[in-house]
Amino acid sequence: MVSRKIVTGDSLRLAQVYLKRGAHVPLHLHDQEQMVYVLKGRVRWLVAGQEIIVTEGEVLRVPSGVMHQAEALDDTFQISIVSEVI
Predict the structure, then answer these.
(1) What pTM did the predictor assign?
(2) CATH code of the domain in which 33 resides
């Protein structure tokens, strides 16, 4: 339901993420800030208790230390960029 290709640099991690419709990313948090750019499809995010639908061409910012989860509403392709704690 979920596949990723990850490239890690000195201070960033970039991931190509493929989500099948109905795929869930469970509720979690991390110390790093995250940006998600949806290239294809739609994803329902819950960020700090707020529901946000992110569609093709839109970018979502998840601040560090904030609980979040995701559900793919369509087959989805997105790019996720996460800052690395140095």
Answers:
(1) 0.89
(2) 2.60.120.10
